[in-house]
Design goal:
TIM Barrel, 37 strands, 6-stranded antiparallel beta sheet, single chain, 17 helices, Immunoglobulin-like, 726 residues
């Protein structure tokens, strides 16, 4: 052994490298100045028989000396840096390889970004962490970066190094960020990889990249190096007008579905034209997709997220999602993405105990484990976790042009005792999660700061105040909140036989007490019709004909009631079976008369809602609604006024949830004049009795409902009738 070379060796550190316990491999590996002696190059190839260094502009390679039989090689070159070289490796099984040295490349992550990350303000963190195709010092390759603050060692493993964690040990940044990075030349898109992490206690686990853009299908997937920067968008017109299209005064009818339920095994790209055609034909303005982020728990329908920055492989590639979003926008359809930041999948290859310790989750199980879901809750107060979640929301809106993010299950974020009997109170002794409050405020602020018309929607089944109030007023800053209280009270009321509905009439009217406390969306969503709750028709009393009449009247009530609208897939077909994850949408139902009638009703309701300003223009303003009659409990009848900005747009809505028709029913009207029926859910085309007001009605000076003028109308059973003021 060369004595001079021997004396240059740091044997303690070499042992750390050879035992794969080194978090700063660049201290040894790669090129280092040896002063006047030249350049010392060290390498670790455990399966190598021999290694040589071939420097540029030098004809013959320099053989390296094996300094340790584990595969540690070194050579002292009488050549001063900088210069480029490659390794020529002959393996023990006779293979000959030419390899770039990843330890010859400089640090890629800037000190500025690293500092922002550890302070929780690196808003586009996906651009720094994860895997990225790039050029460093003129060489193409992939830069990998991962946050693992308590790891003893992190390596990138993949099909390029036979999944051997002894190779490509990553360099921990010299600050306190806890980020490890490495640039590996010559890797290409499609490369499979994982992070092999050796924890402080010596245990080794393989982890999917938290910031990876794509991963394989299967229970234990590898991440895939993916280029998401080259897609050519053609949705400029949509993006330019989105803030107007999605304005508070604009109509919004959302079709909610789990993508595979509609598409089967088709990808996002191939199913997009067919889905867009159905959405436009029915009249929806938006489609809301249950999570398209990578998930492994099929029973969760995607809400137990496994890869927060990755497109679900089951639905296609990132390129497929780009095409889907672009196509929807070209067809004038907005896309809402469901997002589940409350918790994450507990599979070993994911975020759980990522570096051997609780990194993404709170170390206290009273905060981290979610017994209701069998998942783990994020540590919302940790700066690096806040980076992860804030960046993730921005990622889907900036990179994939999502028009809205619907935040799932915010109540479980906001309340420490949600689903828990044993919980850790906040510092004030309360059950409110102050960290989650601050995080949600940050997310809504950052999304709105982009000023691109993106909406933030909260799914919240609690009475948390100020969900849609400005964060400056201590609100959470959402644009809309799902009004699940309205839905649940309404469905409860409808479940009773009309004879008994009289006793529950208050459930029908009560929501107007708080209807303008928030900006609401009315969600007839999938979670209301699961197998443990039953489908809409399952819940309704009576025979099949009466159940369908209840459904049609309910849809009419929903579309004339204040608030944006959301319809779960299948409901617009009158499906009789409850929803479950992966349940196919039976489009064959449209061949049956009953489904045709329900679908035709939805089409006409969406058209009416979009056409009539009174139904959408002031839906978030109490000036847009006025009761005429909300005291007829014995008849189960409601009468109310919907208003637009112009008096001429005023509509009167009559709702009858009794299965008795009324031939000469008197209602008060806002002023003397003529009134014309423009819509009736009991029309023959919807399978009704066609008990309609076919002639224009002229009001009389006949007091009713506290009003000087009134009209007498036909009121069909189980129906909604809409009148226009002439």
């Amino acid at each position: 052994m060369n004595k001079k070379l021997y004396n240059l060796m740091d044997w303690a550190e070499i042992e750390a490298v050879t035992y794969s316990e080194e978090d700063h491999p660049k201290k040894l590996l790669g090129p280092h100045s040896a002063g006047r002696s030249g350049t010392l190059i060290q390498a670790f190839f455990p399966e190598a028989k021999s290694v040589s260094v071939h420097a540029d502009k030098v004809k013959e390679p320099y053989p390296m000396e094996m300094m340790d039989e584990s595969g540690y090689f070194a050579v002292l070159l009488r050549k001063k840096m900088p210069f480029h070289y490659v390794y020529e490796v002959e393996t023990k099984d006779g293979k000959k390889l030419t390899l770039e040295d990843p330890y010859a490349y400089p640090q890629v992550i800037t000190e500025r970004n690293s500092k922002k990350f550890r302070n929780g303000i690196l808003r586009y963190a996906w651009e720094t962490l994860g895997s990225h195709l790039m050029s460093v010092d003129g060489h193409e390759g992939v830069h990998f970066a991962v946050w693992a603050p308590d790891a003893m060692r992190v390596s990138v493993v993949g099909d390029f190094n036979d999944w051997d964690g002894r190779l490509y040990e990553m360099e921990k940044l010299p600050d306190e960020s806890g980020i490890f990075e490495i640039f590996i030349p010559d890797l290409l898109p499609g490369t499979l990889y994982k992070y092999e992490i050796k924890a402080g206690n010596g245990t080794v686990t393989l982890k999917t990249d938290p910031y990876g853009f794509y991963c394989e299908e299967g229970e234990d997937p590898a991440s895939v190096v993916t280029d998401i920067s080259s897609f050519k968008w053609t949705d400029e017109d949509w993006m330019a007008e989105r803030h107007n299209i999605q304005g508070t005064e604009s109509p919004m009818v959302v079709y909610e579905l789990q993508f595979s339920s509609f598409a089967g095994e088709k990808s996002l790209r191939t199913a997009a034209p067919e889905l867009a055609k159905y959405i436009k034909n029915t009249g929806y303005t938006h489609v809301e997709l249950m999570p398209v982020m990578e998930f492994k728990n099929k029973e969760s329908a995607g809400y137990h997220t496994y890869g927060f920055f990755a497109t679900a492989a089951e639905y296609g590639t990132p390129e497929d999602l780009f095409h889907f979003m672009d196509h929807m926008h070209k067809e004038g359809i907005g896309v809402i993405l469901d997002w589940s930041p409350a918790h994450f999948d507990d599979r070993l290859g994911g975020l759980i105990k990522f570096d051997g310790t609780a990194v993404y989750e709170n170390p206290d199980p009273r905060r981290s484990y979610h017994p209701d879901q069998g998942t783990l809750t994020f540590d919302f107060g940790r700066p690096e976790v806040r980076n992860f979640l804030v960046s993730n929301a921005l990622f889907w809106t900036r990179v994939y042009h999502a028009d809205a993010i619907r935040v799932d299950n915010t109540a479980s974020m906001l309340y420490l005792d949600y689903g828990r009997t044993d919980y850790l109170p906040n510092i004030y002794g309360g059950k409110e999660n102050t960290d989650a409050v601050e995080l949600l405020q940050t997310i809504t602020n950052e999304v709105h700061k982009e000023k691109n018309g993106v909406l933030m929607i909260a799914e919240d089944n609690s009475a948390w105040p100020g969900m849609t109030s400005d964060t400056g007023d201590n609100g959470l800053g959402f644009d809309y909140k799902w009004n699940e209280s309205w839905r649940d009270d309404f469905l409860s009321y409808l479940s009773y036989d009309p004879f008994y509905r009289t006793d529950h009439y208050g459930e029908l009217c009560f929501s107007l007490v708080y209807a303008y406390a928030e900006r609401f969306m009315l969600p007839m969503s999938h979670d209301a019709f699961t197998s443990d709750k039953g489908s809409f028709l399952d819940r309704m009393p009576g025979n099949s004909e009466e159940k369908l009449a209840n459904l049609k009247a309910s849809l009419g009530f929903m579309f004339t009631y204040p608030g944006k609208k959301l319809i779960s897939s299948g409901l617009d077909l009158g499906e009789k079976d409850p929803w479950y994850p992966g349940k196919p949408i039976d489009m064959e139902l449209l061949k049956t008369q009953e489904s045709k009638e329900v679908h035709e009703l939805i089409k006409d309701l969406t058209a009416l809602y979009k056409e009539k300003p009174a139904l959408h223009e002031l839906s978030m303003d109490e000036a847009g609604f006025e009761w005429i009659n909300c005291i007829s409990a014995n008849e189960n009848i409601l009468v109310f006024i919907r208003k637009g900005k112009k008096e001429a747009d005023t509509l009167i809505v009559v709702v009858n949830f009794e299965n008795i028709p009324r031939k000469n029913y008197k209602i008060g009207v806002p002023k003397a004049g003529k009134y014309k029926e423009i819509f009736n859910t009991d029309a023959e085309k919807y399978g009704g009795f066609d008990f309609r007001n076919s002639h224009v009605l002229k009001s009389a000076k006949d007091e009713c409902d506290g009003r000087a003028d009134s009209i007498r109308i036909k009121v069909p059973p189980l129906s909604v009738t809409v009148f226009e003021v002439g």
